[in-house]
């Protein structure tokens, strides 16, 4: 798991290494689009090109041999030239790399070796983004193309842009390997402003899984020195002021072509989990003080408001039902515990008035909060 940005080691025949006319770029992009196409596979999948890119960087670093890479990929392949691999191949590779290197920071070390133009279809889209915020938007939208299970979300305020890593975890997997993949993903995101716009910008804060790091100091040149370890959901927080003004000429025609193809391929991938479960998980961490508006939740998950509502309806769910069920379950625990005041419970459930909590409790439990 844990790979959000990544892609093929394509060689000079496919990679876009020097500026070329738009028509030539589109022609070359067809190779990337073909390699991104999903095929049927009875498991959660990741891009084969992504696996190849990571493994080639690891071979150059002397962490694995070509034979070892072939054994891992062969065990989880389906025999098609451009097929996706089972996610388990990626997890097994990261677990081996973390073991050989001695820590999950191997994800950051290898990310430094892979430039933007080597990151496959998503990398090509990001490489032509006109601004950092546009680049992050594209990662949010197309992350499943590279790892079907992984999720990138973002939150924006007037002063900060926060990019977070999410997604369910594969069971029975080496935690150091999972952490290495997460760090690889966040490293590419942290490096985007510098790589795309030549700006010396670090995140104001980087939250990383830190239980299996060998040397956190080695990550300073990627994330800066404000690194929090095991302090919550992995992610990066950028100051909006530091990103403001970073801009380059848009290539609207090329981007439209690439984004359209990527959207089709991502839509063809079956979901790894119910969308309603993802919405509930997001709300669980953002309920206190009032839940975010549906528009913000939809953008966090790479949807428009309307498309999120349609997708939930297709699962037989709705945002209002998910929110109400979460509040009911949390209220049951908080009221039974008895240590929180009713005003605090009102806040923790995201209500603005204690009277609203009282009406909800009578509907849920047939009694007032105070009696409960």
Please, could you describe this protein's structure?
The protein is α+β, with helices and mostly antiparallel strands. The chain has helices at residues 22-36, 48-60, 66-75, 87-101, 106-111, 120-127, 132-142, 175-197, 220-223, 240-243, 252-268, 275-284, 294-300, 305-314, 319-337, 342-348, 354-365; strands at 45-46, 85-86, 151-156, 160-166, 205-208, 227-229, 235-239. The strands form 2 sheets. Strands 3-4-7-5-6 form a 5-stranded mixed beta sheet. A two-stranded antiparallel sheet has the order 1-2. A hairpin with a 3-residue loop joins strand 3 (151-156) and strand 4 (160-166). The relative contact order is 0.12. The model is unreliable at 1-20 and 34-42 (pLDDT under 50).
Question: In angstroms, what separates the terminal alpha carbons?
Answer: 43 Å
What gross morphology would you assign?
A: globular
Number of strands: 7
| Biggest pleated-sheet summary | 5 strands, mixed
- Unreliable segments (pLDDT under 50, ≥5 consecutive)? 1-20, 34-42
Number of separate helices: 17
Oligomer: single chain
Kindly state the percentage of residues in helix: 40-55%
Radius of gyration: 22 Å
**What value does the average pLDDT take?**
82
Secondary structure category: alpha+beta
Strand content: 5-15%
Strand order of the largest sheet: 3-4-7-5-6
Sequence of secondary-structure elements: HEHHEHHHHEEHEHEEHHHHHHHH
Question: Which features would summarize this protein structure in a list?
Answer:
372 residues; alpha+beta; 5-stranded mixed beta sheet; 17 helices; 8% strand; disordered N terminus
């Amino acid at each position: 798991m844990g790979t959000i940005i990544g892609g093929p080691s394509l060689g000079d025949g496919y990679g876009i290494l020097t500026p070329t006319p738009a028509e030539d770029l589109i022609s070359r992009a067809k190779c990337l689009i073909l390699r991104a196409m999903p095929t049927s596979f009875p498991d959660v999948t990741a891009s084969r090109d992504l696996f190849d890119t990571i493994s080639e960087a690891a071979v150059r670093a002397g962490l694995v041999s070509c034979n070892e890479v072939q054994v891992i990929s062969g065990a989880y392949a389906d025999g098609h030239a451009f097929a996706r691999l089972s996610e388990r191949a990626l997890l097994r590779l990261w677990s081996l790399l973390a073991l050989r290197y001695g820590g999950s920071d191997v994800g950051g070390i290898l990310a430094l070796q892979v430039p933007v133009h080597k990151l496959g279809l998503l990398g090509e889209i990001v490489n032509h983004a006109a601004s950092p915020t546009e680049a992050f938007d594209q990662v949010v939208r197309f992350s499943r193309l590279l790892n079907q299970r992984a999720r990138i979300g973002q939150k924006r305020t007037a002063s900060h842009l926060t990019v977070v890593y999410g997604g369910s975890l594969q069971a029975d997997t080496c935690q150091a390997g999972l952490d290495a993949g997460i760090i690889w993903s966040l490293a590419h995101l942290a490096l985007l402003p510098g790589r795309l716009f030549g700006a010396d910008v670090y995140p104001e804060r980087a939250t990383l899984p830190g239980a299996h790091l060998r040397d956190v100091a080695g990550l300073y040149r990627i994330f800066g020195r404000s690194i929090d370890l095991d302090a919550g959901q992995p992610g990066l927080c950028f100051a909006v002021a530091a990103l403001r003004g970073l801009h380059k000429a848009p290539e609207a025609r090329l981007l439209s072509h690439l984004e359209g193809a990527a959207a089709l391929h991502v839509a063809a991938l079956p979901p790894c989990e119910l969308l309603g479960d993802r919405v509930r998980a997001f709300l669980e961490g953002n309920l206190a003080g009032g839940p975010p508006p549906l528009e913000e939740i939809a953008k966090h998950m790479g949807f428009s408001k309307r498309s999120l509502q349609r997708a939930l309806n297709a699962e037989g769910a709705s945002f209002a039902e998910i929110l109400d069920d979460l509040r009911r379950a949390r209220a049951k625990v908080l009221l039974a515990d008895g240590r929180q005041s009713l005003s605090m419970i009102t806040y923790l459930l995201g209500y603005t008035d204690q009277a609203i909590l009282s009406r909800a409790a009578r509907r849920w439990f047939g009694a007032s909060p105070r009696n409960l």
